[in-house]
Amino acid sequence: MALLADKTAIVTGASSGIGRAIALKFAAEGASVVIADTVVQPIEGGESTVDMIRSAGGTTIFLKTDISDWNAVDALVGATVAQFGRLDVMVNNAAIYTSTNLVETTPEQWNRVIGVNLTGFFYCNKRAVTQMLAQAPVNDVRGRIINISSQHGMVACPGDLPYSVSKGGIVQLTRQIAVDHADDLIVCNAIAPGKIITGKPGVANDPDALDYSRRRTPWPRLGQPSDVAGAALFLASDMASYVTGINLMVDGGWMAG
Question: Is 163 a catalytic residue?
Answer without folding.
Answer: yes
